[in-house]
Amino acid sequence: MIKLALYGKGGVGKSTTICNVALAMAEQGLRVMLIGCDPKADSTLSLRRGRPLSTVLDLVRERRGDLALRDMVLEGSGGVLCVEAGGPTPGMGCAGRGIITALETLAEKGAFSVYRPDVVLYDVLGDVVCGGFSMPMRTGHADRVYVLTSGENMSIYAAGNIAMAVERFQGRNYATLGGFILNRRGVKNEDEKVEELARSFHSSIVGRLDRSELVQEAEERGMTLLEAFPDEQVTEEYRCLARSMLSGYAEEWSC
């Protein structure tokens, strides 16, 4: 089972990226599970035509012991298994605790042995890398962490903090840094700035995504880019990214 986490600053395009990557992997015949670890619980919306999921945290609160996997895990486009961790009411609790509760609940219910996914993807808010937000990096969860960033200064700053956290966890046998993904925003010297960031962590850019109005148009339809515009060049960039993220696991998945 391949386990990969995508981190990045809020608003940098993680959910769009992870939904398209998940579907691209499913197109290759892989059984994919996507676990949204953002308190907004919007990681899987594009895979479910805009239909929100009941979050694991809400279900735990409402049903307590009377909770089945089928309540937490629902299929989306391409058969991708969709899960949303959820979070507390704003100002009423710790969002990181929601991630811990969700991942512990999935493990207790035997989600991975029941559904047997080939790939598990985690979509994690990365402005703060502590507590529950670092949970997917820990032993038993993700094997690799990928960091999504644009060339905007605050995005690069957050990306550096995430990469630093991964680096500091190395001695604990946690996830390794798989690389950076550049989601272009049209910033001056954008590629050069992110390349410099990657070099500072002895890493590389594993994918480059061009800014495109088609991405927003697909989201307005409640769809992934792969469904709405399957033959466009920008769509192929997501397919290539999916193969890059899988590289090293099997030769046929290299981009």
Outline the structure in words.
- The chain starts with a strand and ends in a 9-residue tail after the last helix.
- The protein is 38% helix and 18% strand.
- It has one domain (2-247): P-loop containing nucleotide triphosphate hydrolases (Rossmann fold, 3-Layer(aba) Sandwich).
- By secondary structure, the protein is of the alpha/beta class.
- It has helices at residues 14-27, 56-63, 69-72, 95-108, 111-115, 153-168, 190-200, 213-220, 225-228, 233-246, and strands at 2-8, 32-37, 74-75, 81-84, 119-125, 144-149, 176-183, 205-209.
- The chain has an 8-stranded mixed beta sheet with strand order 3-4-2-5-1-6-7-8, sandwiched between helices.
- Strand 3 and strand 4 form a beta hairpin.
Provide a compact summary of the structure.
This protein has 255 residues and is α/β, with parallel strands linked by helices. It has helices at 14-27, 56-63, 69-72, 95-108, 111-115, 153-168, 190-200, 213-220, 225-228, 233-246, and strands spanning 2-8, 32-37, 74-75, 81-84, 119-125, 144-149, 176-183, 205-209.
